[in-house]
Amino acid sequence: MTLLTDKPRDHVDPQSTVATPPAESRAARLTSFAVSDFPVPNGREEEWRFTPVDRLGGVFADEADDDREGDYAADYDVSGVLDLMGDSLAPGQAPRGTVLVPGDRGAVVASAHCAEALHLVLEAEKEYAEPLRVNVHGNGAGRLSSAHYVVEAKHHSKGLLILDHTGAADHRGNLEVIVGEGADLTVVTLQRWDDDAIHLGQHDASVGRDGKYKHIAVSLGGSIVRVNSNVRYDGPGGEATLLGVYFADAGQHLEHRSFVDHNAPHTNSLVTYKGALQGDGAHTVWVGDVLIRKEAEGIDTYELNRNLVLTEGARADSIPNLEIETGEIAGAGHASSTGRFDDEQLFYLMSRGIDELNARRLVVRGFFADIIAKIGVPEVVDTLMAAIEEELAADMEAAA
């Protein structure tokens, strides 16, 4: 049975598309390690109907990476984690594949063509003061790159992993995370690609008893970026927080999908994504799925998406789906809204002597203020705000 929350949905701007939940249960979606199970999408599939699949031929190809005699399509720089690195994992070598099973064409070809997965292990009962970093730099637009990362946070460990993407490539990357009992892990994925990069990613996590998991997705660069962030639970008491911030400009397609599978009792989740758009053809997509299974009594969940359209010609699609199989829950709800830039706020600020660029900056900062407070990672916040101000300055130059 599918039920929608009785909490009211926010006003939705006509530029936004809000669809009804698909008839098929989210739990019934196909997952498989077989490439043949996922034909190349044509754009009519529910999972791909918002994505410009005609521009994704490279990342869909059942082909090995474009590495030419040691000239790799992407370089990987690992810092702050050298003492945490275990032996690389081949396909099927546990714990690889115990959490992440590919759910679409991009993920399955990434899995098939990544012979060695980076394996990071946070020791039990240890707190890591410094961030763990994996920097991915693409060495050329159109060059095919595949990656797989496995991160294990042993019981009662605590740490922060930053996965940073720069340069350009046709990149497909899988991340699987195992959060042990009482562990506390934050994963930040930064998409700071050049304008001609393409990135498809599937990030799956399992949260153990009383564990805490925070996934932060910040998408600023790239021609097409699509990241799926999925969570399920391996015991009661687990908490999952999925945060996302994105800023799309002319011609960019930034797509974020999340799936929280409440498959254990007394678990919590909070999903919050916010984005701004400007320029002709700027397109963002957010699809948030939450499944509350029959056995997941006493859970509490909420998902929120907000979009701020700064100029004409931009479009935001926002689709929250909430599927409930038991009424014995603490709370469940969702909200989604898309609105244009508030000219009255801009006029108010300018009437008090603030120039237009700084007035626009203040309005946009106010829009992002609450989610920035939730991120709580100064390095990420500074990067994000610098990028937003750069985008606003570029917009003002174009308008001048």
Automatic annotation (TrEMBL):
What ranges does the record give for the region Disordered, renumbered to this chain? Answer: 1-26
Source organism's superkingdom? Bacteria
InterPro entries per UniProt: Fe-S_cluster_assembly_SufBD (IPR055346), SUF_FeS_clus_asmbl_SufBD_core (IPR000825), SUF_FeS_clus_asmbl_SufBD_sf (IPR037284), SUF_FeS_clus_asmbl_SufD (IPR011542)
The UniProt record lists the SUF system FeS cluster assembly SufBD core domain at: 139-367
- One biological process GO term for this chain? iron-sulfur cluster assembly
State where composition is biased (Basic and acidic residues): 1-13
Pfam families xref list: SUFBD_core (PF01458)
> Member of which family?
Belongs to the iron-sulfur cluster assembly SufBD family.
Its recorded name reads Fe-S cluster assembly protein SufD
Query: What is the name of the gene encoding this protein?
Result: sufD
